[in-house]
Design a protein that fits this description.
The structure holds two protein chains of two kinds.
Chain A (H helix, E strand, L loop, with lengths): L8 E4 L5 E6 L10 E6 L6 E4 L13 E6 L2 E6 L8 E9 L4 E4 L3 E5 L1
Parallel strand pairs in A: 1-9
Antiparallel strand pairs in A: 2-6, 3-4, 3-7, 5-6, 7-8, 7-9
Chain B lengths: L2 E5 L3 E2 L5 E8 L9 E7 L6 E7 L4 E3 L7 E6 L4 E6 L8 E9 L2 E5 L3 E5 L2
Parallel strand pairs in B: 2-11
Antiparallel strand pairs in B: 1-3, 3-8, 4-5, 4-9, 5-6, 7-8, 9-10, 9-11
Chain lengths: ~110, ~120
């Protein structure tokens, strides 16, 4: 049981917009930054979004992040086949004094 | 350019101690703000954070595994070592180390699979 809650799956057709939610609490998302990671099949996770809505260089602007209260979301616009991957949210948890991850969302491009 | 690489045994017997080494380049763990963390992923399951060590030797552990984990650094060798005691088959996972800075875990190693079996 992950501290951060994500839907197990999401899907869309090429070109569509897909949104993934990440629900937490006041001890994590409500008081700390949210990070998103993309994990392509058989590879290590890759940082996609940091500090809620910042993209590292090289990450397409099709990916965007937002945070509101104790929840966050990742949006993928103009969905492409290469976006098929698992996506994880993460945040620092003040009560646990450690990092917490979501359970991951598998995005399928139909 | 920051790179990290994990190394360790591929097969471990139950009750033994697992020792994993993260060898990195492109940054120094003596630089203010730098850290290295360990995250694991059982086959087909989610990521789980284990521990992190910072430039000032400050350490944090997952509360659920704290009694079994020890993280140390060797700044001169650019290495971070994680030991996990009393290994069980449920600890079978790919273990990743990652650079921790002001952008969270922004660089990851390729991971090393450790299988626990007698």
């Amino acid at each position: 049981q992950s501290v951060l809650t994500q839907p197990p799956s999401a899907s869309g057709t090429p070109g569509q917009r897909v949104s993934i939610s990440c629900s937490g609490s006041s001890s994590n998302i409500g008081n700390n930054n949210v990070y998103w990671y993309q994990q392509l099949p058989g590879t290590a996770p890759k940082l996609l979004i940091y500090r809620n809505n910042q993209r590292p260089s090289g990450v397409p602007d099709r990916f965007s992040g937002s945070r509101s209260g104790t929840s966050a979301s990742l949006a993928i616009s103009g969905l492409r086949s290469e976006d098929e991957a698992d996506y994880y949210c993460a945040s620092w948890d003040d009560s646990l004094s450690g990092w917490v991850f979501g359970g991951g969302t598998k995005v399928t491009v139909l | 350019q920051i790179t990290l690489k994990e190394s360790g045994p591929t097969l471990v017997k139950p009750t033994q101690t697992l020792t994993l080494t993260c060898t990195f380049s492109g940054f120094s763990l003596s630089t203010s703000g730098m850290g290295v963390g360990w995250i694991r992923q059982p086959p087909g399951k989610a990521l789980e954070w284990l521990a992190v060590i910072y430039w000032d030797d400050h350490k944090r552990y997952s509360p659920s595994l704290k009694s079994r984990l020890t993280i140390t650094k060797d700044t001169s060798k650019n290495q971070v070592v994680l030991t996990m005691t009393n290994i069980d088959p449920v600890d079978t996972a790919t273990y990743y180390c990652a650079h921790s800075g002001d952008r969270g875990f922004d660089y990851w190693g390729q991971g090393t699979l450790a299988t626990v079996s007698s």
